[in-house]
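Render this sequence as a predicted structure.
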Amino acid sequence: MLTAYAQNAAQGAAPQGAPSMSILGSPIFMMVIIFVIFYFLLIRPQKKQQENHKNMLQSLKKNDDVITSGGMHGTIVNVKDNSFVLRVDDNTKIEVQKSAVAILKKARQE
């Protein structure tokens, strides 16, 4: 009896024709939607942040108070092509790469 029921169910479940897929139900459309969501949630904000950091590095000048990515607080004493000389204490100066500067604490007037 169970086999007869299973056979009837299998015969009744046979498709009448090929189902038509709408554009909204296609897997490619779903992947495009997911990519667009990832772009606006992850990629675009990161690019904006990188651009802001690049502009901040280009605008740094002598006597600006900065914090490096390693946590060192200092004042810019000298600006070189690819680095800054920071005064971290009265008689202590260190040279750091421009990319190591993470935060501009205070821009001072010369």
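Summary. The domain at 28-106 is CATH 2.30.30 (SH3 type barrels.). The chain is about 40% helix and 25% strand.
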